[in-house]
């Protein structure tokens, strides 16, 4: 699977010795990190995979030239995409993660003692293996005994899930160019809704309001048709993501109402008996704040609301 | 004042045709914007000044190699640094802006109909002139008849201000390397406190929690000694600032208490008779949300609280 590739395929160098993230998804701008050492380069069946040691952000995981996580700021994304849905319902028991092969979302799900079953469906085994090797503090999520890993296509996996199986589904995808494209489309959201119990919740990576209002508008419109409980957009700061932020769609299915803006299952105070490290980023105040949008985004996102 | 300078002084080497922001303030990372055309380059008594047309962020103002504003995202910074303080007190009448030579903060202050006097002290006339020429939608702030511009040193200006003059002071500075250094030091904050009326408010640019917790910790400690009303930290997303965000110190002097987290002077609903364009970014919900901090920052910032 792994092949030798010329490093110039990966280090699209704007600055010699630096990794620059250049993509048609964010034309005309690029974020660059200084590279100390390239630790891994491979090509899986799905994408190019690279890990490098950066000089100031720790180790960095890159898929198809796009930064997925850095050790320095991964806490923001992993904690928010996980606890925004799981702290919004009482006693989540069965949780499904689509994507998220690095294991960081698993690590966060595992903080919830009510959870009995954590399934993950990641399409790319190389991402799992590379994370276990180079990001032990992230991939530690796999060590929880409640976790079952399926390597395969999340879309196909979801279709086969019996109706109403999960309390929560977390879609930790890359951008809608490449292997994750279907995870932004309507049939996928329909499968998600079907796999959730009544009043179940989903959290999906939903791009940046500064860069992709058009994508977000489409996702919101799709979600409003499919999730009859509630449909919300939240966001968080992540310095190494384009525009320095990332958003999430938080939706619930018809059933017991879910008010995402007011968490009912707080996780702020860490159980002292727990082995895991304390939360670095998420807290209940920030949970509520994450749903407050700048006016230019609020206008577009609210415009489709009934 | 204006001198011819080799463009290589500014375009700190990248793919030809891109501007990269490289600074010891954020080692190991750089944000780059694609340059369509350099519109202005000059060297004032204080700093290098550049304006370029970017391919996707509109026109960009750069001082000493650091992006100060882009047409695409300037609304976030200007609206938040201005309305966080002015919406937190009833009937602000006299407002002082230190720095802010581009005029964007003036534009935002002018939205408040209670304001009778807007003084601005900017050290660098070239910034004012360049903004008026290239950023008319920002420098429009100067056209308000309540505005008086002083070109000079903000530190010296403040020392001469009679005690208790202003309801609000907004310190719109660049980073604490270069001409703005003194604006981050204790004697300056003492002058600010003296120039404010009892229960008056100050808003100052206060860097990023991802990059400069050590600077922020010092600023917070200084402010706690000097501002006996309240001391708070807020933040906002700004894609073209390092780490994609920027923070503000919001403090009040001893006197009528100011609860910054609950705005008492909302400006959401635009007065239809007003000539100015509607707010793009700020709203009351976002005002309150801006004070909610990630746990790693909250821990440090709250630790000095009485």
UniProtKB/TrEMBL annotation, chains A, B:
Active site, per annotation: 172
Listed pathway(s): Amine and polyamine biosynthesis; spermidine biosynthesis; spermidine from putrescine: step 1/1
Protein name: spermidine synthase
EC identifiers of the protein: 2.5.1.16
A single BP term in Gene Ontology: spermidine biosynthetic process
Pfam families with a match to the protein in the record: Spermine_synt_N, Spermine_synth
Family according to the record: Belongs to the spermidine/spermine synthase family.
PABS domain segment(s): 16-253
Catalytic activity: S-adenosyl 3-(methylsulfanyl)propylamine + putrescine = S-methyl-5'-thioadenosine + spermidine + H(+)
Keyword Transferase in annotation: yes
GO molecular function, one term: spermidine synthase activity
Gene Ontology cellular-component terms listed: cytosol
EC main group: transferase
Keywords: Polyamine biosynthesis, Transferase
């Amino acid at each position: 699977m792994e092949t030798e590739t010329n490093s110039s395929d990966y280090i699209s160098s704007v600055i010699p010795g630096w990794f620059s993230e250049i993509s048609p998804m964010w034309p005309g701008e690029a974020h660059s990190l200084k590279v100390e050492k390239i630790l891994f380069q491979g090509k899986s069946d799905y994408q190019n995979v690279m890990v490098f040691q950066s000089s100031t952000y720790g180790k960095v995981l890159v898929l198809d030239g796009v930064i997925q996580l850095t050790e320095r700021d991964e806490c923001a994304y992993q904690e928010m995409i996980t606890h925004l849905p799981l702290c919004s319902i009482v006693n989540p028991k069965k949780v499904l993660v689509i994507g998220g092969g690095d294991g960081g979302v698993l690590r966060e799900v595992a903080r919830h003692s009510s959870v009995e079953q954590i399934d993950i469906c990641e399409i790319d085994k190389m991402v799992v293996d590379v994370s276990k090797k180079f990001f032990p503090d992230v991939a530690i999520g796999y060590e929880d005994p409640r976790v079952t890993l399926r390597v395969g296509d999340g879309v196909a996996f979801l279709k086969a899930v019996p109706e109403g199986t999960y309390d929560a589904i977390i879609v930790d995808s890359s951008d809608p160019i490449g292997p994750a494209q279907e995870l932004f489309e309507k049939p996928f959201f329909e499968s998600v809704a079907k796999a959730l119990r009544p009043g179940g919740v989903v959290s999906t990576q939903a791009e940046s309001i500064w860069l992709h209002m058009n994508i977000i508008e489409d996702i919101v419109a799709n979600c409003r048709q499919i999730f009859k409980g509630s449909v919300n957009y939240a966001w968080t700061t992540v310095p190494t993501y384009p525009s320095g932020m990332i958003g999430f769609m938080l939706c619930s299915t018809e059933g017991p109402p879910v008010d995402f803006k007011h968490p009912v299952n707080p996780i702020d105070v860490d159980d002292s008996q727990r082995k895991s490290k304390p939360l670095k980023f998420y807290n209940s105040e920030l949970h509520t704040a994450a749903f407050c949008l700048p006016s230019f985004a609020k206008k577009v996102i609210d415009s489709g609301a009934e």
